[in-house]
Specification:
669 residues; mainly beta; five-stranded mixed beta sheet; globular
C-alpha cells in the first residue's frame, strides 16, 4: 500500500493553502451579457453589452436595480467615464459618446470614426485616448463631448489598452509583450519616452501613486516571453510538461513597474495567475491605490494587496462555471469557463462583466474603494501644422470617386464631401451613419454607412437618398462585383447586394472571412471573381453570382497591412511577405506561393490597379509605392513615397493619381 512506502515524506501528503486566497462570495448576477463594465458614480454601474449599455443601481446589500438603457452602435469593448459621460469603444463601429448626466434618460451624444478597431479607452480632464490595435493611439479633445475635436495620433505597436497620467500616456503593445510610455503634453508633437518588456501578451494598464513613487500595473495573458514561437504547439493534442516549462499559457498575471523616472522604468515584481490558453484575449487591471483587481478572462477575477509592491499578495479570486460547450483551443491547459472581461467597483462590491452569462456582483474579501480614474495634462491650444494635401478635410477620408466633374468623398463622421476637380469644397451631404466607403454603380452613388447599412443616392446637383438597407451589421466597405455589389460587414463577413433600379436586396449566402481588419476587398475583380484579403486565410477568391461562395484561398495567415491581393483584368496579383505573384487562373492561389522580388520595391501593402499602374498602400507605415505592370509578369518599380498619413484608397482623376489619406485628406502623387 502507498502509505507503507517509506520513501515518501508524510509532509507532502498534507494540503497547502490555495495561493490565490479564498473564493469571493457572489451576491447576485445581472443576467445581461456584458463585455465590460464601469462605475458612473459610487452607486451606479454601467454595463457594456452587444449594441447597448445599461445603468444599474447597486445597493448596500449588493442587489441591483436597472435604471435605464441606451442603444449604441456596435458591441462595447472598454468604457471610460468623465464628467457624467461614458466613452465606449466598439471596435469596428468606433467610439460611442454617451451622455449619462441624467441617468434616467441617457443620450447618444456622438459617434467617433476611429482609425481602426477601437479597443482601449482612457479619458481624463477633457482628453480622450483611443487605441486602435495596429493603427496606434488617437487623442481627442472632449471638453465639449457633443463636439469632439481630433488632436493627433501616434504609433505604438499593436495597441490594446491605454492609461493617462498627467502628461503621460502608457500604452500596451499586445503581441510585442511590452508597454510604452509617451509624453503627450504637446499633442501635436508626441514623444516616445521609453518602453519596458512584460512576461506575457500585454493588455490592461493602470498607474497609481504609491509611497511617492509612480507605479505602473500591466495585465498580461497567453504565453510567457520565453516561448518565442507561439504557434509551436498548434498541432499538439495534449499539454506536455515541456510545453509548460517553455512558457505555453504561462503569460497570465500582473507586472509591476516603477515609472517615477519614465525614461528608465524599473521592474519591481510579477504575480502569476494560472497558466491558460484560450478564451477572449482580455486581461484588464484596475486599482484603488491600495489594492489591484485583475480580470483574467477564463481564469476569472483576482484581488491583490499592494501593501508591499515588491511582494504583492493575492487576497481572493472568483472563477465562473465551466462552459457546457468547451470552445476549441487545442490543447487547453485548463477546463474552459465563462470569461470575465471587465470589472467595476461600485458601493464596495466588485462587478465582474461576462459576455457568457451576465454581470456577477461579488463581495471582495477585503474592502475595495472605487477604482482610480486617469489624469491628464496637455496643451489644448497647440495648432496642427498646415497640410500640403490636394484637399484637406475635417473628417477622415476613406475613399473617393469622380463622377461628372465632381469628386464624392467618403468622409467618416461628416458624411459625403463633394469637391470640384481643383480641390474646392462644394457642399457636404450628411449621412445617417459614419460614411466608411463610396461606390458608383449604374449611375448612382452607394455609401457604406457603418451600422446604418448601405444607402443609394441619386446624383444631380445634390445627392438625394433613393433607398437604403439597414439592420445588416456594420458595413465598412462596398465594391462593384459584376451586376451587383459586395460589402464587408464588421471584420468577418462578406455579403452580396443586388441593386434593382437602386433598390437594395441582400442575397442569401455569406462568406466568413476572419479578421478583415480594415477594408480588404479589392476594388478590381479578377475576371469574374471578387478578391478579399482576410488575415486568417490570406488571399481569398470569391464567386458572387448568387450570394458569396469561397472558391480558393492562400490558406496561410497574412499580415493585414503588408500583404494584399487584387484583380487585374482576368488575372490575380498577390503580394505576400515581400514577394510579387501574377496568376493567370486566380484559383491557383491555393497552390504553393512562389513569388518574385521586384528590384527597388518593398512590396508591402494593399495593391490597387489603376490602368497599367499598380499602387501599393501601406496604411500602417504611410508608404506608397508605384509599379508599372504593363508587363504584369515582370513589373517595374517606379517610385516610393513616404507620407505621415494613412493611405487607404486611390483613384485616377484627369490622368493623375490621388490617394485618400484618412485625416490627411486627399494627396496628389
Amino acid at each position: 500500500m502507498s502509505i507503507l512506502n517509506g520513501n515518501i515524506s508524510l509532509d507532502v501528503t498534507f494540503p497547502i493553502s490555495m495561493p490565490f486566497g479564498a473564493q469571493m462570495e457572489e451576491i447576485t448576477c445581472i443576467p445581461e451579457l456584458s463585455l465590460t463594465a464601469a462605475a458612473l458614480d459610487k452607486q451606479t454601474l454601467i454595463c457594456g453589452g452587444q449594441g447597448v449599455i445599461s445603468l444599474h443601481n447597486i445597493g448596500k446589500n449588493g442587489n441591483s436595480k436597472e435604471i435605464s438603457s441606451l442603444k449604441i452602435f456596435g458591441n462595447a469593448r472598454q468604457i471610460g467615464v468623465y464628467n457624467g459621460f461614458a466613452y465606449v469603444s466598439t471596435r469596428e463601429s468606433g467610439v460611442s459618446v454617451c451622455d449619462l448626466t441624467n441617468p434616467q434618460n441617457p443620450i447618444l451624444a456622438y459617434q467617433i470614426d476611429s482609425l481602426e478597431l477601437a479597443t482601449g479607452i482612457a479619458v481624463a480632464n477633457g482628453v480622450l485616448a483611443i487605441t486602435n490595435r495596429h493603427m496606434g493611439c488617437e487623442l481627442y479633445d472632449v471638453r465639449d463631448p457633443y463636439h469632439p475635436r481630433r488632436l493627433n495620433d501616434f504609433q505604438c505597436g499593436e495597441a490594446q489598452s491605454v492609461y493617462l497620467y498627467e502628461n503621460l500616456a502608457i500604452v500596451s503593445h499586445w503581441m510585442g509583450r511590452e508597454a510604452a510610455i509617451f509624453d503627450i503634453s504637446n499633442p501635436m508633437d508626441i514623444q516616445r519616452i521609453s518602453s519596458f518588456s512584460v512576461d506575457g501578451f500585454a493588455d490592461g494598464v493602470c498607474v497609481i501613486k504609491h509611497d511617492e513613487r509612480l507605479i505602473c500595473l500591466v495585465g498580461t495573458g497567453h504565453h510567457a516571453t520565453r516561448l518565442k514561437n507561439r504557434r509551436k504547439y498548434k498541432d499538439f493534442a495534449f499539454v506536455t510538461a515541456e510545453m509548460i516549462a517553455e512558457g505555453y499559457g504561462g503569460g497570465h498575471g500582473v507586472e509591476i513597474f516603477d515609472i517615477t523616472n519614465p525614461s528608465m522604468p524599473e521592474w519591481l515584481s510579477t504575480l502569476k495567475t494560472p497558466p491558460l490558453f484560450g478564451g477572449l484575449d482580455t486581461w484588464l487591471v484596475y486599482s484603488d491605490g491600495e489594492s489591484c483587481v485583475f480580470t483574467d478572462s477564463m481564469n476569472g477575477i483576482f484581488t491583490i494587496s499592494l501593501d508591499d509592491i515588491t511582494n504583492p499578495q493575492f487576497t481572493g479570486y472568483y472563477k465562473l462555471k465551466p462552459l457546457a460547450y468547451q470552445k476549441v483551443t487545442s490543447p487547453s491547459v485548463q477546463v474552459q469557463t465563462a470569461s470575465i472581461t471587465g470589472a467595476a467597483s461600485v458601493n464596495g462590491f466588485l462587478c465582474a462583466a461576462s459576455n457568457d452569462d451576465g454581470v456577477h456582483i461579488l463581495k471582495p474579501n477585503h474592502h475595495i474603494n472605487g477604482f482610480l480614474s486617469p489624469k491628464a495634462t496637455i496643451d489644448f491650444d497647440v495648432e496642427p501644422t498646415n497640410s500640403s494635401a490636394f484637399y484637406s478635410s475635417l473628417g477622415q477620408i476613406h475613399n473617393f470617386v469622380e463622377y461628372n466633374g465632381r469628386v464624392y468623398c467618403a468622409s467618416g463622421e461628416l458624411g459625403v464631401e463633394v469637391i470640384d476637380l481643383n480641390g474646392n469644397l462644394l457642399y457636404v451631404n450628411a449621412t445617417s451613419g459614419i460614411c466608411h466607403d463610396v461606390c458608383l454603380h449604374e449611375g448612382r452613388l452607394y455609401t457604406a454607412e457603418g451600422d446604418m447599412g448601405v444607402a443609394c443616392y441619386d446624383v444631380t446637383e445634390t445627392l438625394t437618398e433613393h433607398s437604403r438597407i439597414t439592420d445588416i451589421g456594420c458595413v465598412r466597405q462596398i465594391v462593384e462585383a459584376g451586376a451587383g455589389l459586395v460589402i464587408q460587414i464588421g471584420y468577418i463577413k462578406i455579403s452580396k447586394l443586388t441593386a434593382i433600379d437602386g433598390k437594395l436586396v441582400l442575397s442569401d449566402g455569406d462568406a466568413i472571412a476572419s479578421m478583415l481588419y480594415h477594408r480588404h476587398l479589392s476594388r478590381t475583380q479578377a475576371g469574374s471573381y471578387t478578391v478579399a484579403m482576410p488575415s486568417s486565410q490570406g488571399a481569398l477568391i470569391l464567386e458572387t453570382n448568387e450570394g458569396v461562395q469561397k472558391v480558393a484561398s492562400l490558406g496561410i495567415q497574412s499580415c493585414s497591412f503588408a500583404d494584399g491581393a487584387c484583380g487585374y483584368k482576368d488575372k490575380l496579383i498577390a503580394l505576400f511577405r515581400g514577394k510579387y505573384l501574377c496568376l493567370d487562373d486566380p484559383k491557383d492561389i491555393s497552390k504553393p506561393f512562389n513569388g518574385n522580388d521586384i528590384e527597388g520595391a518593398l512590396l508591402s501593402g494593399i495593391p490597387y490597379v489603376l490602368g497599367d499602374t499598380l499602387v501599393i498602400l501601406n496604411r500602417c507605415t504611410g508608404v506608397i509605392e508605384l509599379l508599372d505592370i504593363s508587363d504584369e509578369y515582370n513589373p517595374k518599380f517606379i517610385k516610393r513615397i513616404k507620407t505621415s498619413g494613412y493611405p487607404e484608397a486611390c483613384s485616377v482623376i484627369n490622368e493623375e493619381i490621388y490617394v485618400a489619406m484618412g485625416f490627411g485628406g486627399i494627396l496628389k502623387i
